[in-house]
Design brief:
Layout lengths: L8 H16 L9 H11 L14
Helix pairs in contact: 1-2
Length: 58
């Protein structure tokens, strides 16, 4: 997912926290629910890498 360096972990974290704040009113790291991490990854990297199994589609 973030191995290529094209999208930083910090950028995904910031987006996940923003999604969490929008939906729930507040968000505290490290308690960001998985659904917001998944949504952030899908938005920033794409569906194929957001499956959670660590395998990218080729």
């Amino acid at each position: 997912m973030l191995r290529t360096g094209e999208v930083s972990h910090g950028a995904v974290l910031a987006r996940a926290m923003a999604l969490c704040r929008e939906a729930e009113g507040s968000c505290t790291w490290p308690d960001v629910p998985e659904r917001y991490w998944q949504s952030a990854v899908k938005e920033m990297i794409g569906e194929e890498t957001a499956g959670g199994n660590g395998q990218e589609k080729q």
